[in-house]
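stage 2 :: seqdesign
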């Protein structure tokens, strides 16, 4: 919980917020201001990295930067003061507000509260801003939701992610939050390290995304009983369809590649075998069947491998899915993936083929039932219509949680994906 303190000289202290929803620390990656700079309410002052993503932090009041309490590269606990700001004498008596994280400790003049304002929020006379954390504000912005119209259900009147989803589609319950980290161990990017040619060893601190990845994978590997099945399939027709779609006017400006059709094939396979899209509730001893698909796509980034997901991918058209895949990959590589995008995944695709790898045995993301690994697509001799011909061939590997998915169900899903990629016209007849 971020709070403000005020001294006799109107010094405001901005504390590290819980930007990752439950995480207890973050690393300061970059400062955008220096002591002496003037800042305004909502101005981004720094970028921090949690175990989930890099996030920009806006400051919630006006003033002049007095001190940066930690240098770049420092890991700071949630609640520690990271920057202090002195209110200017020309501020016009404006009351500083830290929306979403608490109230000023000094006496302030308050306007009468409106019924839509949660109790305990100090607001300036000129406007009323709802109480919400930065990731929730970002989600509301992405979904074009006015937070002033959302009914808060969180503690102390805080608007939660579920409240925003409910405002978009009240009859549909929002997807449950995923475990704290959603990761897969395949092809993690190596951090930039300065190597000393004369040294026999180099030690790299384990933190941020890499630390969360390690913890999540250990938890997944020793909690969910993994089973992996493989199939090698002729994808020549799929590759031809990719080239045809690149010329389609509806796909103009969109990235069209084999991953797009593989993703669509998996979504169709899940539609035909919905029991595979589930999670295991250990506390309640229940299987939770998901009636939506949040499709995770593993993306290698300079900070490590992350798995953002496409919300409600099952309802997207092919152009919409292409757009979502493109935005997801670009945002991930630029380090701008939000924590919200990495929560709530149900199944994942990891494309190890881009590294020239034939296949793998991927570990499940915690809370998910299955993960599909796609190998490199290679020209190989293949028996086609009774003759050996050069064909485009790849190997798929499906890992699944054997508590949720038995061999028969897992085999059906993998066989359906393979059948669609072999004859992609089935996307029409089956989809």
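stage 2 :: out
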């Amino acid at each position: 919980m971020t709070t403000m303190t005020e001294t006799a000289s109107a010094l405001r202290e901005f504390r590290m917020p819980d930007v990752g929803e439950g995480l207890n620390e973050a690393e300061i990656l970059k400062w955008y201001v220096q002591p002496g700079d003037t800042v305004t309410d909502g101005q981004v002052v720094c970028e921090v990295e949690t175990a989930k993503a890099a996030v920009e932090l806006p400051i919630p009041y006006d003033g002049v930067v007095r001190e940066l309490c930690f240098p770049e590269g420092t890991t700071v606990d949630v609640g520690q003061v990271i920057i202090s700001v002195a209110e200017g004498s020309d501020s016009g008596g404006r009351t500083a507000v830290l929306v979403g994280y608490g109230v000023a400790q000094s006496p302030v003049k308050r306007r009468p509260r409106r019924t839509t304002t949660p109790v305990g929020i100090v607001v300036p006379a000129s406007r009323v801003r709802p109480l919400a954390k930065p990731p929730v504000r970002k989600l509301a912005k992405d979904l074009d939701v006015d937070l002033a119209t959302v009914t808060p259900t969180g503690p102390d009147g805080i608007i939660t992610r579920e409240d925003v989803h409910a405002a978009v589609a009240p009859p549909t319950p929002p997807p449950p939050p995923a475990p704290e980290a959603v990761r897969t161990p395949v092809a993690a990017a190596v951090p930039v390290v300065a190597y000393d040619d004369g040294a026999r060893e180099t030690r790299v601190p384990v933190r941020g995304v890499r630390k969360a990845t390690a913890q999540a994978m250990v938890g997944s590997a020793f909690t969910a009983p993994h089973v992996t099945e493989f199939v090698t399939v002729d994808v020549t027709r799929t590759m031809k369809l990719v080239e045809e779609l690149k010329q389609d006017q509806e796909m103009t400006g969109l990235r069209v590649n084999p991953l797009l059709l593989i993703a669509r094939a998996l979504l169709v396979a899940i539609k035909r075998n919905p029991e595979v899209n589930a999670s295991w509730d250990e506390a309640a001893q229940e299987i939770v069947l998901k009636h939506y698909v949040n499709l995770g796509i593993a993306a290698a980034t300079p900070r490590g491998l992350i798995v953002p997901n496409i919300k409600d991918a099952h309802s997207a058209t092919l152009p919409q899915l292409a757009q979502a895949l493109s935005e997801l990959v670009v945002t991930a590589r630029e380090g701008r993936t939000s924590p919200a995008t990495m929560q709530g995944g149900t199944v994942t695709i990891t494309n190890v083929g881009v590294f020239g790898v034939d296949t793998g045995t991927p570990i499940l993301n915690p809370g998910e039932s299955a993960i599909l690994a796609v190998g490199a697509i290679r020209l190989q001799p293949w028996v086609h219509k009774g003759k050996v011909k050069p064909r485009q061939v790849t190997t798929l590997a499906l890992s699944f949680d054997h508590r949720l998915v038995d061999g028969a169900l897992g085999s059906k899903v993998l066989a359906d994906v393979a059948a669609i990629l072999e004859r992609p016209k089935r996307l029409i007849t089956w989809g």
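stage 3 :: structure notes
- The first strand starts at residue 11 and ends at 15.
- Confidence is low (pLDDT under 50) at residues 1-8, 89-127, 170-192.
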